[in-house]
Write a structure and sequence with these properties.
about 40% helix, alpha/beta, 5-stranded mixed sheet, 15 helices, elongated, TIM Barrel, 5-stranded parallel sheet, binds zinc ion, 2 domains, single chain, about 450 residues
């Protein structure tokens, strides 16, 4: 388990730092990101990171301390060592207003520039200032890896804007608070590859320690609650956090597991193809190849035998459901896939659901492909973005017509409940077009 945000340098809160770290490790914490609030704190974070190999330091000045900001101090710290994984925490706090809003904005913007200069992501603190935050970030444009908005408390629109600007959102103890339904409602709707988890120790301790001193070991309660809300397993939540943290902060190898056959949300997935039929991003948000904390892009091509030997190790009790889910389009590997599927069916896999991008028509043999595997699959999940669908349904070029032929075949061959689409509006249009029932994509199938 990784805690992406703690203030271990707070000497008043952690006079017993050694034992806090030891006890966190004993509870399964393998990495702690300790965040700075001012110039002196930056060096305290650094010295803690030097004492403990699994702690990483950030450098930066909190909006509370904005009045004491000195740009040359921050630059000299960043020049001194490459140990700092991010600039943070920086941002705006209009709840306490310890520094004037004007000063806060200037200091924030200056630190964003420094982060850019050092090619570092940022950790942003924002309280009661989301509209100014968005204005400032918008004025700087999208960053491929902006960093993290920690302890996110904004609404869904703000979350979407921030994700489009290249940020991930971080959640902590508040997920467990009974009066934080609004935060949970936003959290539930986010893509997995844009969420990380934190304690913000010593603050915001999760239930059942609410109101007491928080420590990184309590991150377990955050993962537990997050998994419940998302309908995932505890391990899924831990893995998603680990994978996102590695990608965003680039601080440790992601230790990417072999993903040709993997388990996510309690369901086995078979990953068969890297071949893309189009280069779509979903609303500009999901640009990574990560799926539930797994790297979906295969490192190499696997043979049918390799898939089958992996399947053979899976107990029969777990063979009730299998998703064919790939970075590319599985139908582009129809020959291999039909060989694998045939054996899987003989070996008692009960329900096999194929996930396709819906762009199968891009290949002139799409229908042949579909027919080749049709006998072995029990359902189809169509994953396509609003823009691709709109293109298909409204255009009359030969590409679109081919796509629609494939869709039409898919829809008629595999009906509800396993025909799904990304949102209700698309479902309604599909239903109208094909006179078939269709349901919006479920929680566990989100990309
Ligand atoms: Zn903060
Ligand atoms: Zn903090």
């Amino acid at each position: 388990m990784i805690d992406t945000h703690a203030h271990l340098s707070d000497e008043t809160a952690f006079p017993d730092l050694e034992s806090v770290v030891t006890s966190s490790r004993r509870k399964g914490v393998t990495g702690i990101y300790t965040i700075s609030v001012d110039a002196a704190d930056t060096y305290r974070c650094l010295s803690i990171a030097r004492r403990f190999r699994d702690i990483h330091p950030a450098a930066g000045v909190h909006p509370h301390q904005a009045a004491a900001y000195d740009r040359s101090e921050l630059i000299s710290a960043l020049k001194k060592t490459s140990a700092f994984f991010a600039v943070g925490e920086i941002g705006l706090d209009y709840y306490y207003n310890f520094a004037s809003r004007d000063t806060q904005r200037k200091v924030f913007q200056d630190q964003l520039q420094i982060a850019d200069d050092f090619y570092l992501p940022v950790i942003i603190h924002c309280r009661d200032a989301h509209s100014d935050l968005l204005d400032i970030l918008h004025s700087r444009g999208r960053r491929d890896n902006g960093g993290v908005i920690h302890c996110f408390t904004g609404n869904l629109d703000e979350a979407r804007e921030l994700m489009k600007l290249g940020f991930a959102l971080s959640f902590g103890g508040m997920l467990t608070f009974s009066n934080a339904k609004a935060i949970r409602d936003v959290f539930r709707q986010l893509p997995y590859n844009r969420m990380v988890f934190e304690t913000d120790s010593p603050y915001l301790a999760p239930v059942p320690h609410r109101g007491k001193r928080n420590e990184p070991g309590y991150i377990r309660y955050v993962f537990q609650r997050a998994a419940e809300i998302l309908n995932l397993t505890f391990d899924d939540a831990v893995r998603i956090n680990r994978s996102n943290t590695a990608r965003i902060f680039d601080t440790h190898p992601s230790g990417a597991a072999d993903t040709c056959f993997f388990k996510f949300a309690g369901i086995w997935h078979l990953n068969v193809s890297n071949v893309k039929t189009s280069d779509l991003t979903f609303n500009g948000i999901n640009t990574s190849t990560d799926y539930g904390g797994y790297e979906l892009k295969l490192k190499r091509s696997y043979s049918a035998d390799e898939y089958l030997s992996k399947s053979a190790k899976i107990p029969h009790s777990e063979r009730n459901l299998l998703f064919i889910r790939s970075y590319g389009e599985p139908l582009m590997e129809a020959d291999k896939l039909s060989m694998i599927l045939r054996e899987l069916k003989i070996n008692h896999w009960q329900n096999i659901i194929l996930t396709t991008t819906g762009y199968t028509g891009a290949h002139h043999e799409a229908l042949t492909f579909l027919k080749k595997i049709a006998g072995y699959i029990d359902g189809i999940e169509i994953l396509f973005s609003d823009n691709s669908y709109t293109h298909l349904i409204h255009s009359h070029d030969s590409f679109a017509i081919k796509c629609m032929e494939s869709f039409s075949y898919l829809m008629k061959r595999f009906v509800y409940p396993d025909v799904t689409a990304r949102n209700q509006r698309i479902c309604d249009q599909l239903t109208e077009k094909f006179h078939l029932p269709c349901c919006a994509i479920s929680q566990t199938l989100r990309r």
